[in-house]
Write a structure and sequence with these properties.
The structure holds two protein chains of two kinds. Chain A is an alpha/beta fold. Helices cover about 70% and strands about 5% of the residues of chain A. Chain B has ten helices and ten strands. The chains are: A alpha/beta, B alpha/beta.
């Protein structure tokens, strides 16, 4: 084990200074907040537009006291109102010239209908000039003003019939206060918010980080090993007085350390994305805010999560090393990896986007066959089911499978086998390329 | 044990009836020779003669199909881990870690071979000196020329003070100045009590550098001896002529 430390140091330094690696690590921390910022900016634009004085053109066919009062209500609600006496087609043209965002038509019989407590018909023609969030915000603002005016009219009518009754009570006789009960604890939040927070936090955020971590670690391990072949450094490395296990372990640890760093950066980027994305649109509790209200899972659950995560990372790193060792260059490693990574990581996506129990049996078997599934199941279930049985059984299984892959990796880490296997893979690739060319 | 000590005193490498087959191809066919302490032993032959295969077996990278290979009495197959402590191997196309500096690389290798801080520092200091890279030792190796990369590899191979350094084409692709520098390093290693086995295409270089050599062709050792001895046997003025004469016969 004496040679392990310098070898790990070599791996970490060489990987962290490789642009192919560090650019990949830096991108999430830049990309996610930028996306979040773009989304929050467009949302803010829409909200800003809603606060601006919006010009609307009105065709008043009724020309009564009630219709005029209605128009003045709209004006009091913040709309810049222009009354037009023209026909609909002409009014649309002049609305366009005036920069009106909408055209409202009050039909004849407006006052009469109100007096009879009948419904009155208002037509609204939205003038769409662009497809941006700002336009959307303007149209939403016009609808809101109409909704508020409708409520004022409704209150006036109710007061006329029943002067002693609160119009709001008649409109909404049920006063509902929502609470959620999680593991016996009452949370002062509707169930929708809890589901939303769980979905963002444990349902999407954590599994996505684990997914990206698995992808990154496999890629890094495969690249690191393939580069040793490509740059002809593996041969020298294998003549050093260190065991094959030390070389393998150094690759696993080096790749895992760099990938873990990538995972932290990705997590930071992803959290920043959610924060920038939702902070401006009123996510009162922030990401995971409500989850702090929930009873915390026992520490054993976190221990299980960590163990399953370590096993999953060791498993995918070993696979990466095997793929890299079998490849005479990075290009072949990437091709091999793209084939093997799909069945390994597909179950993880199935877990993120659905429930394992509702999957067909074949997919359920695939999910439980992959050690990468267990930390995701654990992360998803940890709040509501601290000890999921499938994860408890999955840990010894993952450990056994990882040991098998590690053993296989150490066995092929001899030039005798590597050269033969690399030659066979290269030959197969050349044959395949020739066949494509012929076709 | 006594036999091992005796062998350690004079015979460093012992190869008996070595055969290596890759599928149907016989790369080495009954190869036998020895390398003694303080020798620079040259393995000379054309491309695909079996030079690199022999050196790779000595370096514990490939397994013999049959025959016996021992270094200081240790079998390269059964006692590979002990053999690795005694040797250092320089592959013909040995690459470098692009993103490490020359100093970092030498320091990492020294930490693998030596335990005490003092030994590590001494080894790195020696390697830096023999590489002759000066301040460039602190630059990343991706900025090095081919000659500089070769010099750092030779320094790496010799700094561990191996009982036997296995050098595959140590001066291949180097210009005359860099090649001379590497040849000087090889001679210095011998004067410090080491032994060397090297392969080369360059007959002139071998003639001036090696104390003993073997001609290898199509996986077989054709002749073995001191350069002057071989030249005299075949009535040749240099090793190149001698090699061609051997092939004719």
């Amino acid at each position: 084990m004496r040679g392990l430390r310098p070898l790990v140091e070599k791996e970490v330094k060489d990987l962290l200074r490789d642009p192919r690696i560090y650019i990949g690590l830096i991108i999430p921390i830049i990309m996610f907040p930028i996306i979040g910022f773009a989304i929050s900016m467009t949302t803010s634009q829409a909200m800003e537009a809603a606060r601006e004085k919006i010009t609307v053109t009105i065709i008043d066919e009724d020309r009564t006291e009630a219709s005029e009062r209605f128009i003045s209500l709209l004006s009091d609600s913040g709309l810049n109102v222009t009354v037009s006496a023209k026909s609909l087609d002409e009014a649309i043209k002049s609305a366009d010239k005036l920069g009106s965002k909408a055209l409202l038509v009050i039909h004849r019989g407006f006052e009469e209908s109100l007096k009879r407590f009948g419904r009155v018909n208002i037509e609204i023609y939205s003038v769409i000039r662009s497809m941006g969030f700002k336009s959307m915000g303007v149209q939403a603002a016009v609808s809101n003003v109409l909704k508020r005016t409708s409520e004022v009219l409704s209150s006036t009518l109710i007061s006329r019939v029943a002067p002693d009754v609160d119009p709001e009570v008649l409109r909404n006789p049920l006063n509902v206060t929502e609470y959620s009960v999680v593991k016996g604890k009452i949370i002062h939040a509707p169930s929708g918010s809890i589901f939303g927070q769980l979905m963002i936090g444990h349902g999407v955020l954590v599994p996505m980080i684990l997914f990206v971590l698995s992808m990154t670690v496999t890629q890094i391990a495969a690249t690191a090993t393939a580069v040793e072949n490509e740059e002809k450094t593996l041969e020298t490395l294998l003549t050093f007085p260190v065991s094959r296990y030390d070389i393998l372990l150094a690759k696993l640890l080096g790749s895992s350390v760099v990938a873990a760093l990538g995972g932290v950066i990705f997590a930071a980027g992803f959290v920043l994305y959610f924060q920038t994305c939702f902070s401006s649109i009123g996510l009162e509790f922030g990401v995971g805010g409500l989850l702090t209200e929930l009873p915390p899972p026992p520490s054993l659950s976190y221990a299980i999560l960590i163990v399953s995560l370590i096993l999953a990372i060791l498993f995918v790193t070993s696979l990466g090393v095997v793929m890299g060792a079998l490849s005479s260059d990075v290009r072949i490693a990437s091709s091999l990896l793209s084939v093997i990574i799909i069945p390994v990581l597909l179950p993880s996506l199935l877990i993120v986007y659905g429930s394992v129990d509702s999957l067909p049996l074949a997919l359920q078997i695939l999910v439980y066959a992959m050690p990468t599934s267990y930390p995701m199941i654990m992360a998803k279930e940890i709040i509501l089911t601290p000890m999921p049985m499938q994860v408890i059984y999955g840990i010894p299984y993952s450990a056994a499978l990882t040991l098998i892959v590690l053993y296989a990796a150490s066995k092929i880490l001899t030039p005798e086998k590597l050269l033969t296997l690399q030659y066979k893979i290269k030959l197969r690739r050349i044959k395949k390329e020739r066949r494509w060319e012929l076709e | 044990m006594a036999e091992r000590i005796r062998m350690a005193n004079d015979r460093i490498v012992e190869i008996n009836s070595l055969v290596k087959r890759f599928g149907e191809l016989t790369a080495l066919d009954e190869v036998s020779f020895n390398v003694n302490k303080g020798e620079i032993f040259g393995l000379i032959g054309p491309n695909a003669a079996g030079k690199t295969t022999t050196l790779r077996i000595l370096a514990t990278l490939l397994l013999p199909t049959s025959g016996r290979v021992r270094i200081l009495g240790y079998d390269v197959v059964e006692e590979a881990s002990k053999v690795r402590r005694l040797i250092s191997y320089l592959a013909e196309d040995a690459g470098t870690y692009r993103n490490l500096t020359g100093y970092e690389y030498l320091s990492i290798v020294a930490r693998i071979y030596f335990r005490s801080k003092r030994d590590i520092e001494e080894a790195v200091e020696e390697a830096v000196r023999i590489s002759g890279l000066g301040d460039r030792i602190m630059d990343k190796m991706k900025t090095y020329s081919k000659g500089m990369k070769r010099r750092i590899q030779v320094a790496r191979a010799l700094m561990t003070r191996p009982k036997i350094a296995i050098l595959d084409e140590p001066t291949a692709g180097l210009d005359v100045f860099h090649a001379q520098h590497v040849r000087d390093l090889i001679k210095r290693h011998i004067s410090n009590g080491g032994s060397i086995i090297l392969s080369s295409h360059n007959m002139l270089e071998v003639e001036h550098l090696c104390t003993r050599l073997a001609f290898i062709h199509k996986g077989r050792i054709i002749t073995e001896g001191e350069p002057e001895e071989i030249k005299a046997i075949y009535g040749a003025s240099n090793l190149e002529e001698a090699f061609l004469e051997v092939l004719k016969r």
